[in-house]
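Q: Could you fold this chain for me?
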Amino acid sequence: MRLIAIALWIGCLLSSLGVVHAEHLERKYVLAQEKAVQHRDELEIEWEQLQLEEAALAAHGRVDELARSRLHMGVPGRDALVTVLR
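A: Sure. Below is the predicted structure, expressed as structure tokens.
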């Protein structure tokens, strides 16, 4: 009878250790998931900001102004045009 009681006590102890370990793993994985979701949200915000910046940099008026001021480009005159016939 004493042997059965000891075996049951050891079984309960091992079972409780298993529960503690499972809870620890669950908390660890939930924390990792929350960090991943937060990182995803930060990346989405950064992506939206980059899209806005790209749209601003690619605006036709800005490109035209940069071409004229920095690259000294302009509309070619009649004498600079060459027609290629095939």
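A (continued): The helical segments are 2-57, 60-69.
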